[in-house]
Design goal:
12 helices; N-(1-d-carboxylethyl)-l-norvaline Dehydrogenase, domain 2; 47% helix; alpha/beta; Rossmann fold; homodimer
């Protein structure tokens, strides 16, 4: 079954690369890195594990050239979501599984609305993936995936897709409750991606070492935990401490939102902070810190957007 | 009684200028604007009231040249506080009244510790004062002062200083509880100065018009109100709404902290957010939003400090 990868940044290149190495037929939509990847292939530097070089790479600049696929991994940022309306149709055949690999909430819902005839999975990435150069991706920690079916669709295919990841060397667990799993991931993204940007550009160790920033991050985590509790998803007692300890292993990692922000690109404000805030409000869970950081990030992103319009790159 | 003004930015120039116009002998410590003010005098543009030009101005570059004073108005930013150890002694004679006109908490305490033999007053400025050019100050709204005695010292002189301000056309009210009055002012500075910087450079109208930023600002105000309540300083029912309405009258005003931040100068993180946070914690009042914005501003200020060291202006 042919696999298409849309959005070959760090996430798409890493997982697509691993699947291709394991023998799957993988075709990539490439844009800014097309020339580099076609010429020199993909280099995956998997910290702690072996590194490898994928060459040649089936990379195309337009989805029309890629042909239809059985599985499409969507690793485009949530902010570029609207582009999928035109990008996806050439890849679709009856039954094509769409796997939303973005951060935050609302991605599966959007796909289900626009492509109602396709089964949709959500893939939650626990990897510290960095695009170090065109065609070069580094995994500086973790890398597992949690995979869940959206609204019950694709249950049947869920295990098959998970197996493919597993065979490619990606630890992949199947989750029953996709939204709950997304909230667990948000418990990291909401504080660390958010504080890294709002505090003026901090890596995760700088957040952990600064007692005040760490306290703010912990407060955001506790709000997410309160939402999880409301959804009857009890979390272990020492859960916040454990996430802090995991984060301490990541080195001077810059969350993807910070990388995007510093590069002047839009940040996933609505998927990571806005939509979770709205759902928490609907559930009646007070999340004043989430509201605060959402307000700040939305403003910072808009201001950065105004600068982009003034000085187009 | 000679009046010395230390820190002739917007606040020092405005009030010193008004007192001089009314006939007081006022002497100014000037640094970056010395040449402009000596040559062309001080221009005060008092919106809604008459504007005036003060010339000549008794301005000096060193306090040693100013001679001793009966009253010293301290309008230097709290961040430059340590400089007062050397700046003030030449201005002092037995009984010289020190008037701390800075924002935030801890200014009077610091003066009392370093200059224990002098009566100390606190002056709380409700003015939208802007230094538009060297020697030019604009008042874009309000302008009244609240004056209180610190720790009971100077009670005797309090009314005399207040009278001088009143005679100079400055609405000046005497307050019994100086710290309570400082908290009332903080109820504006904490949200508006803080959000204006953390949201990437917003004037007060941009904060009011953005529903999310406005909500964050209102949340910060409510935390300050909770502190006020704990101190048995009941505030009127519609107090938050009234402050929002007053702020709507200010036009596209940029709080002084934002002006400092954008100019690459240190911001008064400890006086406006750090010290209030610590006092709220001591009182046992939960202030999670204040903690969050303090953490962010402290980080933003430090990063801006690192840039200052790399590229000295």
């Amino acid at each position: 079954m042919k696999i298409g990868v849309v959005g070959a940044g760090a996430v798409g290149s890493y997982y697509g690369g691993l699947l291709a190495r394991a023998g799957s037929e993988v075709t990539f939509l490439l844009r800014r890195d097309w020339e580099a990847v076609i010429r020199r292939g993909l280099w995956i530097d998997d910290q702690g594990k072996e590194s490898f070089h994928l060459y040649p790479v089936r990379g195309f600049r337009r989805t029309e050239e890629m042909g239809s696929c059985g599985i499409v991994l969507i690793a485009l940022k949530a902010t570029a979501r609207e582009a999928l309306r035109d990008l996806l149709p050439p890849l679709l055949q009856p039954g094509t599984v769409l796997v939303a690999m973005q951060n935050g909430l609302g991605n599966e819902e959007w796909l289900a609305e626009v492509f109602p005839n396709h089964p949709i999975l959500g893939g939650i990435v626990f990897g510290c993936l960095i695009r170090t150069a065109p065609g070069r991706v580094q995994n500086v920690g973790f890398g597992k995936i949690e995979l869940g079916a959206y609204a019950g669709a694709g249950e049947f295919l869920l295990r098959e897709v998970a197996l493919r990841f597993e065979r490619a060397g990606v630890p992949c667990s199947v989750v029953e409750d996709l939204e709950a799993a997304r909230w667990r991931k948000l418990a990291w993204n909401i504080p660390f991606n958010g504080v890294s940007v709002a505090a003026g550009g901090c890596d995760v160790q700088e957040i952990l070492r600064d007692a005040e920033l760490r306290r703010f991050a912990a407060g955001l985590m506790e709000e997410v935990a309160a939402v999880a509790e409301k959804r009857e998803l009890p979390l272990p007692e020492d859960w916040t401490e454990r996430m802090m300890a995991d984060t301490a292993q990541m080195g001077a990692y810059r969350p993807s939102t910070l990388v995007d922000f510093l590069a002047g690109r839009p940040i996933e404000v609505e998927a990571i902070w806005g939509e979770p805030l709205r759902r928490a409000q609907k559930m009646g869970v007070p999340t004043p810190l989430l509201q605060a950081i959402y307000a700040l990030l939305r403003s910072l992103d808009r201001r950065s957007g105004v600068r982009r319009e003034i000085t187009p790159s």
